[in-house]
Each structure stands twice: as structure tokens, then as C-alpha cells.
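I am still getting used to C-alpha cells and would like to learn alongside you. Would you supply a protein for us yourself, any chain you care to pick? Start from the sequence, derive the C-alpha cells from it, and show both lines together. Go ahead whenever you are ready, and we will take it from there.
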Amino acid sequence: MIGCLAAMFAGGKASGVYPSDTAEQFQYKCHHSRSSVALLETLDHLKMVEKMQSELPYLKAVAVWGAQPKQETIGHIKVFGWDEMLARSDRVKDAELDARIALIRPGHACSLIYTSGTSTCRNVFFCD
């Protein structure tokens, strides 16, 4: 929930992956949605980023909330532990956050939901 709200407050859209998603499906969703930040639960999820990093041109950073990563970068992608990500959020002034929140309007997409069960072209729904 924190990640979803953070994405919306930053002017972005939240999306998720299923526990059963492969590294290729993760890459597809990240690339299709042009994700710039991913919040990951485990170091196994970080391995998907490692495997696909050359095919994730929009991804700038990942934060792992369920474990402490050892590496600081994977290729061009910055890697943070959860505590470090939260500490970085303290750098954002309340006025800047308030200005971003003020731009949110009814009808703006706030979430992308990718349907499961398809192996090629996926369906995506925009929620507002």
C-alpha cells in the first residue's frame, strides 16, 4: 500500500506483478509501463532485475523492503534497502509533495492492472 500511494503522490501509477511471474513477465510489465522505480519484497525478486537489467531501460531504481541488498547498483539501476529509501524520502519537502498531490484529478489513471493467464500480449486496465 505504501508503494501504491507513493507512486500516486509522485504523479506516477502503481502496478504489480504476480508471485508466479517470470523474469520475462516482470520485464514486460516494467517496460510496457515505463516503470522508473520498483519496490521488491525479496532478494529473489532482485535476481529478476539482475537477469533482465539490460532490457529495463526505464528502470532507474529498486528498493527491497523484505531484505537488505548487498549491491548498490545493477547495471544502470540503483539498488536500495527499505531503510535507505525511506531516509531518501525525507529529502522531499512537504510543499513539493503537496504540489504534486494537487495535480491529481478525477479521471487520471493511478494504477495499471495486468491480467494473468496470457502468455503473449497482455491485457492492461487503467484504474482511476
In short: The chain has a mean pLDDT of 87. Residues 37 and 61 are 5 Å apart (CA to CA). The domain at 2-127 is CATH 3.40.50.980 (Rossmann fold).
